[in-house]
Design goal:
Blueprint: H1 9-19, E1 26-33, E2 49-56, H2 59-72, E3 90-95, H3 101-116, E4 120-125, H4 128-148, E5 154-158, H5 165-172, E6 176-182, H6 205-211, E7 215-219, H7 221-224, H8 228-235, E8 242-246, E9 256-260, H9 262-267, E10 273-282, E11 291-298, E12 301-311, E13 316-323, H10 329-333, E14 344-348, E15 355-358, E16 364-366, H11 372-398, E17 406-411, E18 418-420, E19 426-428, H12 430-443, E20 462-465, E21 467-468, E22 474-475, H13 482-493, H14 495-498, H15 511-514, E23 517-521, E24 533-539, H16 548-553, E25 574-579, H17 583-596, E26 613-616, E27 623-625, H18 627-640, H19 652-660, H20 673-682, E28 695-697, H21 707-716, E29 718-724, H22 728-737, E30 754-765, E31 768-778, H23 792-800, H24 804-813, H25 817-822, H26 824-845, E32 847-855, H27 860-863, E33 867-869, E34 876-878, E35 890-892, H28 896-907, E36 911-916, E37 934-940, E38 943-951, H29 963-979, E39 984-987
Parallel strand pairs: 3-8, 3-9, 4-6, 4-7, 5-6, 7-8, 10-25, 17-23, 17-24, 20-23, 24-25, 38-39
Antiparallel strand pairs: 1-2, 10-30, 11-12, 12-13, 14-15, 15-16, 18-19, 21-22, 26-27, 28-33, 29-32, 30-31, 34-35, 36-37, 37-38
Length: 996
């Protein structure tokens, strides 16, 4: 196959942005003399004349060109032509990973030659991987570019210190010549490029290159010229100008002339959308899970980040916690199972030997230590990656799309993919073995029987990209060694083959045609990608050093079909990342990485409004923007008026202005208010606010504190004291057997720890990165081995405050201790809830309230400060003060149901007086203070009754309330019976139910 290249508007804009900076500049051919001291002759021109670029730069004109380009591209115009390196002009071009920046700068080179005659170019890259990627793009675009540029002659070569004649021919060539080199090849005096050489008659190679005044392309400048030494090395090339291409520019002192950032690429579907999936284990904290994540040495000593289970209300959650020497694991986690681990004796922060030693069992953990569940999770990750892969193949087949699906697994150890015996014969490593087992199981499921490659042997559908030694044995490398060069070459060479379906009729039967699953070393994490990578999984055992951006970068590019044509749209292009964390954590981490790379989400600065277009001439197509000065003025105005806070983020006032599509600004900005609000809206993540302008202070309606209020108040104002009688035998019986209200311990059922598969779609905009759940389910996996049983008696005793004798009696009466063995912590937590519910019920049954002389203070109604928010999103109801039916001019509520109740009580003529009881009106119960919702004086058939409303939160089925809440309500009823004032209780969700 041959990859096709569409004409894409955004790529044309990026190319024109670079080409147009030279408008109005004086461009001439520059000739220089090359000394020929080689008696055997050379391949370059016989006259010994070198040919280079010559540009006489008019700085003012070039800056005008730059500003015009920036305005057209919606970029804040620059004040200066030069950045931190002032020896030659350089320009930042921002293009998100996967949008074709290498294609763009190679085509830019040809456009610069076509329009201005430039012939000498140097591409500087940070690594061998990226260098090989440039060469591959050159190879697959050459036939296309020759057609586009009428057969123009151009060449590209890799700088090789053993082939310096190629540098001489570069200097003398009168056609387009492009040299590609890593920065490491010429950033030290000892480099051959910087040393005088006999092959070049004593001339340094760098001097020949410098004479050509090349146009320099800097690929990933944040990794190329991030030191003064590197900047000096670039300057030694004597460039005419430089173009800096990256998705993440760190040095923004250079004028940016084009921008296609991650948000733009996502919004315009120029890259794949990202779906993050993960395996979550739910073992309820029954194992002493210990996973060393990181060790850091700082001012306060050495700390270790360890993933553990930590006790919570419902059981236990996995958390990454910080530990130091001396920490007791049981004390930190609050889980019995960690008692056997003991305390931390030592933390070793030595690079490569990081470890934590414990006083108990296990004795030590390292970054490579595998837990029991690690093996299960890795198998589940491999299995779900295969399943996602096969499902995409099925989807494309049903849609008639001939798109070959690829999946990528990153490993940090070759031996996990391939191992060798003493005779040098290779065998499957453990992850390759798991892969073949899971693939064999899944591919033969009935739903996949129509897939194209179902009959390709399992051993041939996967292969590994790893570096090899002289004997061909795969080996671990760091990604930047000589041995890695051949690996990158292999990856690039097989690109088209990997994109082509296995098809015997078409004679597409090569090894690459059969491969659909690629295993690669985690060191090979940049510089290459494949448009048809749809799944990426990282099976890393040590610390995961691959950033989230590097992971997604291997598969962001839009997919191509078997004819090599792009197939755009999110319906096809979804990249599934099999992560070692939840999709929400991945999204948060991805945003953090973007921010570390200088991409700021949701923050305003003084240039935020500079690119707003204020005037457009349809004839000349010239634009006039608001500009830096006025943008700064508007920014500080919005700050002064509290639309923007001190951190540069939107306040609730600005959010409300966005909702209302109206904002007060100085008169000079009135014509662009809609555009100001558009800019503001793009930086705001959520508009869910309470309007500060709708905030009012609640006032007492003094006239209402009269007869009806006093009659009601005198019914409820009394306080009580209580004593409790508890029947232990009844407690034991109910705890074991339960009753009609709740189940007993005998009803407890438990399951082994389960593995859940959850997926979420990652969404990106100017306000930030977030993720929304898109699917999931259970995983076919279990952890082997029995749980160590904890001390259930002590646990229940501590959690229920009952005597050891009572706990033993309960456990001797139950008939389901096998469920305890199956999942100890789940069983114990359920038992605690049941025992406490029974205990609370019996406490309430046995409670006796006695009215005392003390009363609630009526004066608190006048002294309490309340705040109400008005409007649909507010929390209050305005009352009719003339009716004098309640204490305040606004009823402040806790829910929409309460708001509705207050409105209807206000309208109901039968309600003579009602009070939303304040927080300070608390009834003492053994289970904690109880705060009822409402008190009402209700008139029916000319007879007055007081109804005390307990529950107005939507659920009036008393049995469905939480046991603790239900018990407090029952205690409250006893309180009011004890004060003996004829109060009735009702539980309703709607005010109309009072009439029943």
């Amino acid at each position: 196959m041959e990859i096709q290249f569409d004409k894409l508007d955004y790529q044309i804009e990026a190319i024109n942005s670079a080409v147009n900076i030279f408008e109005g500049q004086v461009v001439k051919e520059s000739n220089f003399t090359i000394t020929n001291g080689n008696p055997q002759g050379t391949l370059f021109a016989s006259d010994g004349i070198g040919i280079g670029n010559r540009i006489i730069i008019d700085e003012n004109q070039m800056l005008k060109n730059v500003n015009k380009i920036q305005i057209l591209n919606g970029i804040v115009p620059s004040d200066k032509l030069f950045g931190n390196n002032k020896t030659f002009p350089q320009f930042n071009i921002e293009m998100e990973t996967g949008t074709g920046k290498t294609f763009v700068y190679l085509k830019t080179i040809l456009e610069l030659n076509k329009k201005y005659g430039f012939m000498k170019f140097v591409i500087v890259v940070p690594s061998v991987a990226i260098r090989e990627g440039v060469l591959k793009t050159f190879q697959i675009t050459k036939s296309r570019f020759k057609k586009d540029y009428n057969g123009v002659i151009y060449d590209l070569f890799m700088f090789d210190s053993s082939k310096l004649d190629r540098v001489r021919s570069y200097a003398s060539a009168n056609t387009i010549d492009i040299m590609v080199t890593t920065i490491q090849s010429f950033n030290k005096d000892t480099n051959i490029m910087n040393r005088e050489n006999d092959q070049l008659s004593g001339v340094r190679p760098i001097d020949l290159i410098a004479e050509t005044r090349p146009i320099v392309i800097i690929d990933e400048p944040q990794s190329v010229d991030n030191t003064d030494l590197a900047k000096d090395a670039l300057s030694s090339l004597n460039p005419s100008v430089g173009f800096r291409y990256s998705a993440t520019h760190r040095d923004n002192t250079y004028p940016k002339i084009y921008q296609l950032d991650a948000v733009d690429a996502y919004d315009n579907e120029l890259v794949k959308q990202i779906e993050v999936a993960g395996i979550e284990v739910d073992e309820d904290g029954n194992r002493a899970h210990l996973k060393l994540v990181d060790i850091k040495s700082g001012k306060n000593g050495i700390t270790a980040k360890i993933e553990v289970y930590k006790k919570n209300r419902g059981g236990a959650d996995k958390k990454i916690m910080n530990f130091k020497v001396g920490d007791d694991m049981f004390t930190k986690t609050k889980l019995q199972i960690y008692d056997e681990v003991g305390f931390i004796q030592d933390i070793d922060a030595t690079p490569g030997f990081e470890s934590v030693r414990f006083s108990g069992n296990p004795e030590k953990i390292t970054l490579e230590s595998a837990t029991l569940e690690d093996e299960v999770i890795k198998r589940a990750q491999i299995s779900k990656t295969i399943e996602e892969h096969l499902n995409k193949e099925l989807k494309f087949k049903k849609a008639g799309q001939r798109i070959k699906v690829l999946s990528l697994f990153f490993l940090d150890k070759v031996e996990n993919y391939r191992i060798y015996d003493e005779d040098g014969n290779y065998h499957l490593g453990r992850y390759a073995h798991i892969f073949e087992e899971e693939y064999e199981r899944l591919i033969h499921l009935p739903k996949y029987k129509e897939l194209n490659d179902i009959n390709v042997p399992t051993s041939e559908v996967h292969d590994g990209y790893f570096s090899a030694d002289n004997k061909g044995k795969l080996k671990n490398t760091k990604g930047n060694t000589k041995a890695d060069e051949s690996t990158y070459e292999m990856i690039m060479k097989n690109k088209e083959g990997l994109l082509t379906f296995y098809d015997e009729k078409k004679k597409h039967t090569s090894k690459a045609n059969k491969i659909r699953f690629i295993f690669s070393h985690s060191a090979l994490k940049e510089g290459w990608d494949n448009p048809n990578v749809f799944q990426i999984a990282t099976l890393i055992e040590t610390k995961d050093t691959i950033t989230k951006r590097q992971k997604i970068g291997r598969g962001l590019r839009i997919a191509v079909n078997e004819e090599g044509k792009r197939v755009p749209g999110f319906a096809i292009n979804t990249l599934t990342i099999m992560a070692n964390e939840s999709y929400k954590d991945f999204a948060e981490g991805l945003q953090k990485e973007y921010e570390e790379d200088g991409i700021v989400f949701g923050v305003f600065n003084k240039d935020s409004f500079a690119t707003i277009v204020v005037k457009y001439d349809e004839v000349t197509e010239e634009l006039e923007t608001l500009g830096k000065e006025k943008s700064e003025k508007l920014f500080f105005y919005l700050k002064d008026e509290n639309y923007i806070n001190s951190s540069g983020r939107a306040t609730d006032k600005l959010k409300q202005a966005i909702i209302d599509r109206n904002i007060i600004v100085p008169e000079e900005f009135n014509d662009i208010v809609p555009k100001i609000l558009d800019v503001a809206s793009s930086k705001v993540k959520s508009l869910d606010i309470k309007n500060a302008d709708n905030k009012v202070e609640v006032k007492v309606v003094k006239e209402a504190l009269a007869d009806d209020f006093l009659e009601l108040w005198n019914k409820i104002k009394y306080k009580t004291t209580y004593k409790i009688k508890l029947d232990s035998n009844r407690l034991i019986k109910l705890a074991v057997e339960g009753n009609e209200a709740f189940d007993g311990i005998n009803s407890i059922q438990t399951r082994k720890g389960t593995y859940l598969y959850k997926k979420g779609i990652v969404k990106m905009n100017q306000a930030g990165v977030n993720a929304e759940e898109s699917g999931g389910g259970a995983v076919r996996a279990t952890t082997k081995g029995r749980y160590k049983l904890p001390d259930i008696i002590t646990f229940l005793q501590n959690e229920t405050n009952l005597t050891r004798k009572t706990i033993v009696a309960i456990l001797q009466s139950v008939n389901n201790l096998d469920s305890f063995k199956n999942n100890p912590l789940s069983y114990m937590n359920q038992a605690v809830n049941i025992i406490n519910a029974v205990k609370n019920q019996l406490i309430v049954d046995g409670i006796e309230y006695t009215r005392i002389d003390d009363e609630y203070e009526q004066t608190l109604f006048s002294t309490e400060t309340l705040t109400a928010y008005l409007g649909d999103k507010g929390n209050s109801v305005k009352v009719n003060k003339d009716k004098q039916k309640t204490v305040y001019d606004y009823v402040v509520t806790d829910s929409n149901i309460e708001k509705d109740f207050a409105r209807k009580a206000e309208m109901d003529d039968n309600v003579k007086f009602y009070i939303k009881l304040p927080d300070w009106f608390k009834i003492r119960t053994p289970l904690g203070p109880y705060n009822p919702d409402w008190a009402l004086l209700y008139e029916k058939d000319n007879e007055q009754h007081l109804y005390f409303i307990v529950e107005t939160k939507g659920d009036t089925i008393f049995e469905q309330l939480r046991p603790h809440e239900r018990a407090k309500i029952l205690a409250g009823e006893k309180h009011f019976r004890a004060i003996d004032t004829d109060i009735r209780f009702k539980r309703v969700s709607d005010e109309s139910e009072l009439q029943g």
